[in-house]
Amino acid sequence: MRHGNKNNALGRKKAHRDALMSNMAISLIEHKRIETTLAKARALRIYVEPLITKSKEDSTHSRRTVFSLLQNKEATAALFRDVAPKVATRPGGYTRIIKLGNRTGDAAEMAMIELVDFNTTYTKEKTAGTEVKKTRRSRRPAGEKAAAPKAPKAEGGEAAAE
């Protein structure tokens, strides 16, 4: 029975689970989107959202608190430099979990976890360089439209000469 057991052990001891969450959080901060099992994605959401909330206040104390959990200087710097300004106005819910179906090897439920403000598909604002220009394509080849239309040849070469 699991009376009073509020954490998902993920089949690991505490030290292994802490290392797993730290490594997955580093990957999520670095790549902004990762694919993993659904259970790990849900556990990662609980782990990483307080870190993002902590990064909204850029102080020495919050940096040290985040670094103590991540143990990675580059990820901590990226969290405070890149992620925190984008989520500054958001009151929570920094991650999105999208179910992907079952893995072929062991039929585990797979999911993609991503940082919400970094997915350009769902955001309302478009940045200046992301617009795709649509061009109309002509049906004729490019070289043919520059050339003048040719006059039709007479079919009877001798009849045309007379």
Question: What does this protein look like?
Answer:
- With 162 residues, the protein is an alpha+beta fold.
- It has a domain at 14-118: 50s Ribosomal Protein L17, Chain: A.
- It is 44% helix and 12% strand.
- It has 6 helices and 3 strands, in the order αβαααββαα.
- It has a 3-stranded antiparallel beta sheet with strand order 1-3-2.
- The N and C termini lie far apart (107 Å).
Class by alpha and beta content: alpha+beta
Please tell me what the overall shape is: elongated
- Rg, rounded, reads 29 Å
| Estimated helix fraction | 40-55%
CATH class of the domain at 14-118: Alpha Beta
Number-wise, the strands total: 3
Strand count, sense and barrel status of the largest sheet are: 3 strands, antiparallel
